[in-house]
Amino acid sequence: MKNVESKTGRAWIEINIENLRHNAETLKKAMQPGCELMAVVKAQAYGHGAILTASHLNKLGVRAFAVATLDEGIALRKGGICGEILILGHTEVERASELKEYDLMQALISFAYAEALNHQGIAVKGHIKIDTGMHRLGIACGELSSVRKVFFMENIKVCGMFTHLCCSDSRHPDDVSFTKGQIASFYRMADALRDSGITLPKLHIQSSYGLLNYPHLACDYVRVGIALYGVLSSPDDDTVLKLELRPVLSLRSRVVLIREVAAGESVGYGRDFTAGRDTRIAILPIGYGDGFPRNLSGGKGSILIKQYVVPIVGRICMDQLAVDITDAEDVTVGDLATLAGASGYDQLSVPVIADNSGSISNELLCRMGARLPVITR
Ligand SMILES: *Cc1c(COP(=O)(O)O)cnc(C)c1O
Predict the structure, then answer these.
(1) Fewest 10 Å CB contacts: which of 39, 264, 291, 356?
(2) How far apart are CA 87 and CA 126, in angstroms?
(3) Alpha carbon of 295 to those of 194, 213, 267, 268, 304: distances in Å?
(4) 156 with 103: CB under 8 angstroms?
(5) Pocket residue to mutate for ligand 1, from 207, 209, 211, 231, most atoms within 8 A of Cβ
(6) Are 12 and 374 in contact (CB under 8 A)?
(7) Is 226 in the pocket of ligand 1 (CB under 6 A)?
(8) What H or E segment, with its residue span, contains residue 353?
């Protein structure tokens, strides 16, 4: 598989395993002693290929993973992934036997959910989710007695307890004080449980920005997603810890057709682009069906071919897009194009592309995972 796509493929994702290794090592070093990296590999490891990414991380000694769904967890096990796998989202309790069969840990997203899962009569492992202010999933941080009861449920082995920070990416004083409040309420809950005689399970709070902005926290795990893939969510994000992380993913395609368009003629749907001069257009067989954002149409996006940065013209289609190569004279059919990430000459930053399209790196990356093959280099 390795080099086939890059020779014959229409479009593909290329993963730099050395950069993944570098990021995992860098993040581990930034964590407090005793804290383990839990690699978040949901949504095809943010487009990087869940099994591919997780198996490389396994080889590097990473022993804990998080996914969003039961089926993602099962896929990892079927792909030979060892270690702990935590499902962060909801799993239908009727599927409890699969949690057991594949040795997956389930986030216990409310007290009622934990009760319903317990009532299935199947021994499962869980991590109790505590809601400290995000108000998405979790048992409210004031409900000590409910949380306590979960520890005594017959069919649930509580292996962890965690919360999720909702504005740890921000360094605005209001957000910092809100985040500190979230952290304090989580530890208040943990202390109260300990005081009531409960042996605490593994505790975890931080995701990528939680680590980068609150690196002093000494938990058992850090759930790292976006930082593992070597990018921040947005280009202007500033963090307390400034780690040298390296982008792992590059998005590539090839020129399949070159055509001449006379001044005054249009290109693409809606005749959105009209050539102001005689123009050479290159067509690439990649589009929004591959996760490349359609709203980079109309002059908002550029890509790399050889040493040239060439503008996307007209509307990006589901499976094709057009670039203006008038000033890139030696571009020919078959030339490699880089739409995100590194090429030999330059770098198109994922956070910048995401920002230009009105989103964040996380969304841009995970959308790429839907149709494209992933290769390593
Ligand atoms: C997705 C997710 C993460 C990873 O977040 P990043 O910002 O990508 O590091 C961590 N924890 C939970 C609960 C998540 O849903």
Answers:
(1) 264
(2) 9
(3) 51, 31, 16, 14, 18
(4) no
(5) 207
(6) yes
(7) yes
(8) helix 350-356
E strand or H helix at 158: strand 156-163
The token duo for 29 is: 């070093």
Q: Is 78 a catalytic residue?
A: no
Pocket of ligand 1 contains residue 231 by CB under 6 Å? no
Note whether 168 and 213 are within 8 A (CB): yes
Tens-place pLDDT, residues 35-93: 999 999 999 999 999 999 999 999 999 999 999 999 999 999 999 999 999 999 999 99
In sequence order, the β-bridge partners of residue 284 are: 321
Q: Which regions of 262-335 does DSSP assign to beta strands (E)?
A: 266-267, 273-274, 279-284, 302-305, 308-313, 321-324
DSSP labels, 48-93: T-HHHHHHHHHHTT--EEEESSHHHHHHHHHTT--SEEEE-S---G
Q: Is 45 in contact with 224 (CB distance < 8 Å)?
A: no
User: Are residues 74 and 51 in contact, defined by beta-carbon separation less than 8 angstroms?
Assistant: no
Judge whether 232 and 226 are in contact, CB under 8 Å.
Answer: yes
Catalytic residue among 59, 78, 269, 345: 269
pLDDT grade for 162, boundaries at 50, 70 and 90 = very high
0.70 exceeded by the pTM? Answer: yes
DSSP assignment of 199-213 equals: PP-EEE---HHHHHH
